[in-house]
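DM from R.C. (forwarded with permission)

"hey, sorry to bug you on a friday — could you get me a structure for this? deadline for the figure draft is monday and I only need the backbone to look sensible"
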Amino acid sequence: MPISTEDILSQIQGLMAGVDFSSFLETNALYANISSLLGSSCDGLNWVGFYYLKEDGDLILGPFAGKPACTLLKKGRGVCQKAVETNEMVVVDDVHAFDGHIACDSASQSEFVSPVVRDGQVFAVLDIDSPEKDHFTGDVLDLFTQVGNLLSE
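My reply, with the result:
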């Protein structure tokens, strides 16, 4: 039986309780647990993880669940960078139709990216890939939107 949206959000809130977000190590450990939780609890995903925003605008790989991924995402290229530039969630129904898509895993067909904001600035992005086109709709989109919002509070 799949885990419910409410259970996933409750578990994430529990993982977040007591985390000192001023500590990179505590935040990194939290993101590792969230990646694992989402990757193991949600059907239709092939990659869940975080990229941290560097001072130069590039994104560097953080904790994730899935196959090895691109280590560095250069400023101005790809879905993750679009979320950074706009400071908005980006949903791509077909990554092959997204100009500048970076294919870390050729199995990925659709992608969800949410910026994680700390102190008014993008700190990281939550990146979720699916091997199915049009995966991030309805309840699935609602869940990941809520997760992104939780992480930015």
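R.C.: lifesaver. The two ends are 30 Å apart (CA to CA).
me: no worries. Helices lie at 5-16, 24-41, 78-86, 138-151.
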